[in-house]
Design goal:
The protein folds into two domains: about 1-90; about 105-335, BirA Bifunctional Protein, domain 2 (2-Layer Sandwich), CATH 3.30.930. Strand 3 (about 155-160) and strand 4 form a beta hairpin. It is elongated, with a radius of gyration of 33 Å. The two termini are about 60 Å apart. It is an alpha+beta fold. It has eleven helices and ten strands. The protein is about 40% helix and about 20% strand. Mean pLDDT is about 90; it is low at about 80-85. Helix 2 packs antiparallel against helix 4 (about 50-80) and helix 5 packs across helix 10. The strands form two sheets. The protein has a seven-stranded mixed sheet with strand order 1-5-6-10-9-8-7, sandwiched between helices. The protein has helices at about 1-15, 20-30, 35-45, 50-80, 105-120, 135, 170-175, 220-235, 285-290, 310-315, 330, and strands at about 125, 130, 155-160, 160-165, 180-190, 205-215, 240-245, 250-260, 275-285, 300-305. The structure holds 3,4-dihydroxyphenylalanine.
Length: about 350
């Protein structure tokens, strides 16, 4: 067998593949299932044990050589997809456009929310991610012993300086710097000292909204948010408000929407309740207005805050929050049509 392999090696070395047809004949003769090399591979089982190693090595060499020879010729004659840079190509043609990326799902949702609320006159605003105690907690009516002020829940950087735990801090900055009427949305990244899991991360994104003017009422809040979710999820969506508690709003509520999947019938996503919680809201507490220099006798306002990850999970049926942050292109490239 060794002799035959050497013969073939020699033969292949000498062959010159000058046409497409010769290349195909070469493939049939040596590389196809019924070709000579495959015959040898099949015969290899009978080679005696002491010869197996050496024979195996040259047989592999032969396979490689034949394959390389064929690949080289095939590239020249086939051109096309396997061979973008072959000599047969016109290199003066404009380059083919490759897939160049997609928007991140969180950016898609953030943009959509901003656009909807823009139509109602809410203007975009931003605040810092490193925040002091006053803007993140005290001005928002958090009592001194509130658990969120604990090291376990908040990343402190220095005494009374932390990574903001919510975008509500930006409300305070706006109220301090502007006179009502104020109507703003404030998206951004927030940080909490949480164990990372499919449902929680140590940072995530929120969008905050406020509206402050004379005679702003809870009715305005309800109608604004109802319009907002209809635009975001479709006209059929229903809403309900549940009483809740936040230090900076009074009264406070959480808003649920009817489950997008089962339309309120009850399913796994809504845990059989027919409802999905999507944001917190309320009338801005007079203490908060006062702390920021706005007279609560003259003005009132509402505020709301929502998690972008949560909305994007509902919208795109994403089950694990961590996929937003691991930069896996198999996940990210699915959003190129948005
Ligand atoms: N800051 C709250 C949080 O992070 C969300 C929130 C609730 C914001 C009610 C608001 C509001 O403006 O009125 O959980």
């Amino acid at each position: 067998m060794k002799e035959r392999i050497h013969q073939l090696l020699q033969q292949i070395e000498e062959i010159k593949l000058k046409t497409e047809q010769e290349t195909e004949e070469f493939r049939l003769k040596f590389l196809s299932k019924k070709g000579e090399i495959n015959d040898l591979v099949e015969g290899f089982r009978q080679v005696s044990a002491d010869q197996k190693r050496e024979t195996g090595q040259i047989l592999n060499q032969l396979k490689q050589k034949a394959q390389e020879k064929w690949n080289e010729a095939n590239q020249i004659f086939q051109g096309g997809s396997k061979n973008k840079f072959s000599q047969r190509r016109d290199r003066s043609l404009p380059a083919e456009l490759e897939f160049s990326g997609a928007r991140h799902p969180l950016a898609i949702v953030e943009n959509e929310v901003i656009q909807i609320l823009n139509k109602l006159g809410f203007v975009y605003s931003e605040g810092p991610e490193i925040e002091d105690d006053w803007h993140n907690f005290s001005a928002l009516n958090f009592p001194p012993n509130h658990p969120a002020r604990d090291m376990q829940d908040t990343f402190f950087i220095a005494d009374e300086i932390a990574l903001r735990t919510h975008t509500s801090s930006v409300q305070v900055r706006l109220m301090e710097n502007q006179k009502p009427p104020i109507r703003a949305i404030m998206p951004g990244r927030v940080y909490r000292n949480e164990a990372i899991s499919a449902r929680a991360n140590c940072f995530f994104h929120q969008i905050e909204g406020i509206y402050i003017d004379k005679n702003v009422s809870f009715t305005d809040l309800k109608q604004t948010l109802f319009y907002f979710v209809q635009q975001l999820f479709g006209e059929d969506v229903k809403v309900r408000f549940r009483p809740s508690y936040f230090p900076f709003t009074e009264p406070s509520a959480e808003m649920d929407i009817s489950c997008l999947l089962c339309k309120g019938e009850g399913c796994n996503v809504c845990k059989q309740t027919g409802w999905l919680e999507i944001l917190g809201c309320g009338m801005i507490d007079p203490n908060v207005l006062e702390a920021s220099g706005i007279n609560p006798e003259e003005y009132s306002g509402f505020a709301f805050g929502m998690g972008i990850e949560r909305i994007a999970m509902l919208k795109f049926d994403v089950k694990d929050l961590r996929t937003y942050f691991t930069n896996d292109t198999r996940f990210l490239s699915q959003f190129k049509n948005y």
